[in-house]
Automatic annotation (TrEMBL), chain A:
This is 3-beta hydroxysteroid dehydrogenase/isomerase domain-containing protein. It comes from Drechslerella dactyloides. PANTHER family: BIFUNCTIONAL POLYMYXIN RESISTANCE PROTEIN ARNA, SHORT CHAIN DEHYDROGENASE_REDUCTASE FAMILY 42E, MEMBER 2. The keyword Iron does not apply. Residues 15-291 form the 3-beta hydroxysteroid dehydrogenase/isomerase domain. The chain crosses the membrane at residues 12-32. One of its GO terms (molecular function) is oxidoreductase activity, acting on the CH-OH group of donors, NAD or NADP as acceptor. Keywords: Membrane, Oxidoreductase, Transmembrane, Transmembrane helix. Belongs to the 3-beta-HSD family. GO terms for biological process: steroid biosynthetic process.
TrEMBL record, chain B:
Gene3D superfamilies: Farnesyl Diphosphate Synthase (1.10.600.10). This is Squalene synthase. Catalyzes the condensation of 2 farnesyl pyrophosphate (FPP) moieties to form squalene. The chain crosses the membrane at residues 295-314, 399-421.
Length: 371, 465
């Protein structure tokens, strides 16, 4: 054991909740690559359409909002490590967010603790600390905002607290990872969102002066971070057990605490956009710069007009704010405690992502036309 | 024409002109030499220092007394080594033993060397090198050990380079070789200086535990020089760009200078800049460990010159054709502004901004350069968090301004309409008082309340005005 570094502690039996989702799939692949002898159970609400078959992977269906369903699954598979990545997509209602993220997480925690699971890694979100204002180089010392930004982030924060509070229960160690700006092949939000701008031929507009920095996370790096977290906690489980001393700085230990995960490469927001757009032959993006304040006023007007016409506004205040303010994190905690470094750089990740997106979303002739 | 350009430059950059005049005529150096108390040999050493170094002499001379002589002698020793290595007329069987034994030479009183070509500009230093050896012997043992050790290792590194081909137009093979070369010629200097500073109590001992920081200090300067000196080195039939980088852009190294390759050459250049920028945050980190103002200036001035040069050469096609340099006024401005870590960080941010403004998505290194700039900015933010700009998020301010503006327009429009239509606006006293609340800054002011009744009595509609 002594020759194995804590962050390389082998994982023998893992259950991935949300195992067929974007992140769950990435974790499955990372496990196959880094822990080849690990027995993997990928559980999701629905069984996947196309299952990659591998002797180590078992697929299961589970409904975490139903305690008996998750208890049965954990009892049947007896995992040592559970990755809880399941979360509803944005744009659904408050009710569903709370049902899955709060009640569901409580069910997972209860089932895992009861079944003697050693390590639970909960996938939170960097949004839990977002209150609508800029996030400048923030680390884990920043508390949750007094008023949560929206129902989704509120439910994620409660879910995170539920998971972390369970640390030490029946010897189980828990941690929460807070990724920001996840992207990668198969991502349906971030990169495709930027590509839509090319489609709409709106790349010439830049909101704000492009000094605001943004953090992104390539999906495979996030998956690796999950494995590192599980390994470090397994090592801790075998050695010291849960940290009970509350006076220990929460930045010095992982169990019972959350940590931000990003690529560790914050970049200027519009530079990221331009880097995507240049793959579609747009090199002169951002030639028209709208000051943030003006853009905000215009967005207010646009929202008003859309409201009057009863249409979905395309240009909103949220978008202006999102693209004009800082949103980046200090991930030294993850680097120090996990030995985490992004294996796939931002530009390499983007290249891989666009390879897939180009074939799926933009017909080639459209790319030519835009170029 | 060059003159005219200079005049234009200072006409448009008056602050630089001011800095230049200030630097030359008004500034009090932090520390002075006292030549009366110096031996004849030491005086000679300082003469050599001023002869051999354009940029370093002034900052070395201003170092605090404890550090001045060790650093000056360290510089002369390295300059001596360099002069031997650079001279292509010395055959290798003479050159290599001298380089390898240079640390022993420092212990050999009376050693001199006149084998340099007459054209070698610093040959006189070696002809009278015995003065350096005499003064070296007088240094404290801690300083001597450091200088000797660095001279030994650098001599070995140089000897190894000399065994390679004399003319090289292929550059160094890999980025690792490039880093290794830069370590021998510059990283070691960073190490030596740090080992001089720490025993003297002018630097945080923690700096010795982080070799990466002092190595970065040297590598950053060296890499910037290598990038900038493309043309000069090409004329001398030398090249240091790693093939691992330039090989991606052109077939043969000299092709980088051809006009038809301008676009790819610029991309090669930005990758070289990217590679150098990697050391930026380490340099700032290192500077945070210095405790004496004169030592701080000595270390920080070359670094800010380097970032300024990097910003100047970045995506600048002129660099491949001639030797580009930052204007003297800009250099003076930098030397004046370097001050402390906070102002140094401001200078770094200023040049990062210039680099970003020249960065373009056409360049395949666009995103990487942007990430590296952001990395340095994040580091600076970590040590000097910026104050939030305003209490209200800018968007709300905007919405508020917009709303207020629209309200005024609405009211103006209403009154204008009333005026045009000739409508009589009859306001009830209640409405008038509400309206007054908006236009009167303070309702407790007695004059306003006194003035209110007469206004109230003849409250005509605008139609009567």
């Amino acid at each position: 054991m002594s020759t194995v570094r804590p962050n390389e502690t082998p994982i023998s039996n893992a259950l991935i909740i949300g195992g067929c989702g974007f992140l769950g799939t990435a974790i499955t692949h990372a496990l196959l690559a880094k822990h080849p002898s690990c027995k993997i159970t990928a559980a999701d609400i629905r069984s996947p359409s196309a299952k990659p078959s591998h002797p180590n992977i078992t697929y299961a269906t589970v409904d975490i909002t139903d305690i008996s369903s998750i208890t049965a699954l954990v009892a049947q598979t007896r995992p040592t490590v559970v990755f809880h990545t399941a979360s509803p997509v944005h744009g659904l209602g408050r009710e569903i967010y709370f049902k899955v993220n709060v009640d569901g997480t409580r069910n997972v925690v209860d089932a895992c603790a009861a079944a003697g699971v050693k390590v639970l890694v909960y996938t939170s979100s960097a949004g839990v600390v977002y209150d609508g204002s800029a996030l400048v180089n923030v680390d884990e010392r920043l508390p949750f905002p007094a008023i949560p930004y929206d129902a989704y982030n509120e439910s994620k924060a409660i879910g995170e607290t539920t998971a972390l509070d369970a640390n030490g229960r029946d010897g189980m160690l828990t941690t929460a990872l807070r990724p920001a700006g996840i992207f990668g092949p198969g991502d349906r939000q971030l990169v495709p969102g930027f590509i839509t701008v090319v489609k709409n031929n709106q790349t010439r507009f830049q909101l704000g002066d492009n000094t605001n920095m943004f953090d992104f996370t390539y999906i495979d790096n996030l998956a690796v971070a999950h494995l590192l977290a599980a390994s470090v906690l397994l090592h801790q489980h075998a050695t010291t057990g849960a940290t009970v001393d509350e006076s220990v700085d929460q930045r010095r230990h992982m169990d019972g605490t959350a940590m931000f995960i990003t690529n560790g490469q914050p970049v200027y927001f519009w530079d990221f956009a331009k880097a995507i757009w240049c793959h579609y032959g747009v090199y002169n993006a951002g030639s028209v710069v709208l000051p943030a304040t003006l853009a905000y006023g215009v967005a207010t007007l646009a929202e008003g007009v859309s409201w009057l016409l009863g249409r979905e506004p395309g240009f909103t205040r949220f978008r202006v704010k999102f693209s004009c303010s800082h949103r980046y994190f200090d991930i030294r905690k993850a680097k120090e405690l996990l030995g985490y470094e992004a294996e796939i750089s931002l530009s390499e990740g983007l290249r891989r992502c666009i390879e897939v997106c180009s074939t799926n979303i933009l017909p080639v002739n459209l790319c030519m036309k835009v170029g | 024409m060059a003159k005219l350009g200079t005049i234009w430059h200072y006409a448009t950059h008056p602050y630089q002109l001011r800095a230049m005049l200030h630097w030359k005529y008004l500034r009090d150096p932090l520390h002075f030499r006292n030549p009366d108390k110096e031996s004849a040999e030491l005086k000679k050493c300082y003469e050599f220092l001023e002869l051999t170094s354009r940029s370093f002499a002034s900052v070395i001379l201003e170092l605090q007394p404890e550090m001045r002589t060790p650093v000056a002698l360290f510089y002369l020793v390295l300059r001596g080594l360099d002069t031997i290595e650079d001279d292509m007329t010395i055959p290798n069987d003479v050159k290599i033993p001298i380089l390898q034994d240079f640390h022993k030479i420092l212990e050999t009183p009376g050693w001199t060397f006149d084998g340099n070509a007459p054209t070698e500009k610093d040959r006189q230093l070696l002809v009278e090198f015995d003065v350096v050896i005499t003064e070296f012997a007088k240094l404290k043992d801690v300083y001597k050990d450091v200088i000797r050790d660095i001279a030994k290792r650098m001599g070995e590194g140089m000897a190894e380079t000399c065994r390679g081909p004399a003319e090289n137009l292929d550059g160094l093979p890999t980025i690792k070789d490039y880093d290794r070369y830069c370590f021998y010629v510059a990283g070691l200097v960073g190490e030596g200086l740090t080992r001089l500073f720490v025993p003297a109590g002018v630097a945080n001992p923690g700096l010795l535990k982080r070799p990466q920081l002092y190595i970065s200090m040297g590598l950053f300067l060296q890499k910037v020089n290598i990038i900038r000196d493309f043309r000069e080195d090409l004329v001398d039939k030398r090249s240091f760009y790693p093939r691992e980088i330039w090989g991606k852009y052109v077939e043969k190294y000299p092709d980088l200078g051809l006009p038809e390759n301008e676009e790819v050459a610029l991309e090669c250049q930005s990758e070289m800049v990217l590679n150098a920028l990697d050391h930026g945050d380490d340099c700032l980190y290192y500077l945070a460990g210095l405790k004496d103002q004169s030592v701080y200036n000595f270390c920080a001035i070359p670094q800010v010159m380097a970032i300024a040069t990097l910003a100047l050469v970045f995506r600048n096609p002129d660099m491949y054709q001639r030797n580009v340099k930052i204007p003297k006024g800009e250099a003076c401005e930098l030397m004046m502004d370097v001050g402390n870590l906070r102002t140094t960080c401001e200078i770094f941010k200023k040049y990062i901004k210039i680099i970003r403004s020249k960065n373009t998505p056409k360049d395949r290194n666009f995103l990487e350069v942007s990430v590296k700039c952001a990395k340095i900015e994040q580091f600076i933010e970590g040590i000097y968090p910026a104050k939030p700009k305003s209490v209200l998020p800018s968007g709300w301010t905007g919405a508020l301004v917009f709303f207020v503006f629209m309200s005024f327009m609405l009211v103006n429009f209403a009154f204008l309409t009333a005026y045009v239509v000739g409508m009589k606006v009859n306001m009830s006293p209640d409405v008038w008082q509400t309206w007054q609340f908006f236009i009167m800054p303070n309702e407790t002011t007695t004059t306003t309340t006194a003035a209110a009744p007469p206004l109230l009595t003849n409250t005509p509609g605008h139609g009567e005005l």
